[in-house]
Structures are given as structure tokens and as C-alpha cells.
Specification:
- The chain has 6 helices and no strands.
- The protein is mainly α.
- The protein has one domain.
- The protein is elongated.
- The termini are far apart.
- The mean pLDDT is about 90.
Length: about 140
């Protein structure tokens, strides 16, 4: 049986540890803010320029409200606003925890997977949002 040998974790520089700590803190603050605001109107004004210009939903219309509902455990409300909101929440929590552990340990945890996960999550999120957007445009479903 061939056994794959993994490289030892890379020690993070002081600057990299602080960067991971900042990433964890920002993600944590976003989660706390999402839990504290009104999930049906988390932002004081419409920030979507596409929607203001065309009246049509954009790729991510409803995403902020969807994440705010998911944080509260309102899965049906979250999916109704944007089906990818729960995935965004899971990614945000995962990134926060991963960054916090790396900052605490001072070691990179599978840097190859971290980079691959970031790119894969962004691609999957874009693809899901594009499909949802096309469905919304074709069916006329508004959020």
C-alpha cells in the first residue's frame, strides 16, 4: 500500500497571522451584524446599481437578506430570497473558523486546500447565482 506523505504545515509569519486574525474578525463581525439587523431590510438603502438602472434583479439580488434569514435558522425564508444564501453562510462560517485556527496555531492548515476552496467556492457561487438569475429573469420571479 502506497502512503501519501503530506508536507508539514508551513509556519505563518507574524503578518500572515495578523491577516488570518483580521479575516476571522471581519467574518465574525459580518455574522454578528447579520444576526442583529432586520433580516427583511438589513441595509438602509438599495445598493444594487443594476436593479436601480434596469428594474431587473441582479445575480445576487436577495443574497444579503437570504444570509440574514439563514443566520436566524429561517431556512425556508433564506431559500425563497436566494437559494445560495445558505451556502454563503456556510462558507463564511467555515472561512472564519479556518482563519481563526490558523491565526491561533501560527501554522497554515493545508494551504493547497485553502486556495482551492476559495476559488471553488467563488466559482460555484457565481455559477449558482447565474442559474438562479436566469430562472428569475425567465419566470419573472421578483425578490
Amino acid at each position: 500500500m502506497i502512503r501519501e506523505v503530506l508536507a508539514p504545515p508551513a509556519v505563518l509569519t507574524s503578518a500572515a497571522r495578523w491577516a488570518r486574525g483580521r479575516q476571522a474578525a471581519v467574518a465574525g463581525l459580518l455574522l454578528v451584524a447579520g444576526a442583529l439587523v432586520d433580516p427583511d431590510q438589513p441595509l438602509a438603502f438599495d445598493v444594487c446599481f443594476w436593479h436601480r438602472l434596469t428594474g431587473l434583479p441582479c445575480l445576487t439580488c436577495g443574497m444579503t437578506r437570504s444570509v440574514c434569514h439563514a443566520i436566524r435558522g429561517d431556512w425556508a425564508g433564506s431559500v425563497a430570497l436566494h437559494p445560495a444564501g445558505i451556502l454563503v453562510l456556510a462558507g463564511l462560517v467555515g472561512w472564519m473558523l479556518w482563519s481563526a485556527v490558523e491565526a491561533w496555531r501560527g501554522e497554515s492548515i493545508r494551504a493547497d486546500i485553502r486556495a482551492l476552496a476559495a476559488v471553488s467556492l467563488l466559482r460555484a457561487g457565481f455559477a449558482a447565482s447565474a442559474v438562479i438569475w436566469v430562472v428569475r429573469l425567465v419566470t419573472g420571479i421578483a425578490v
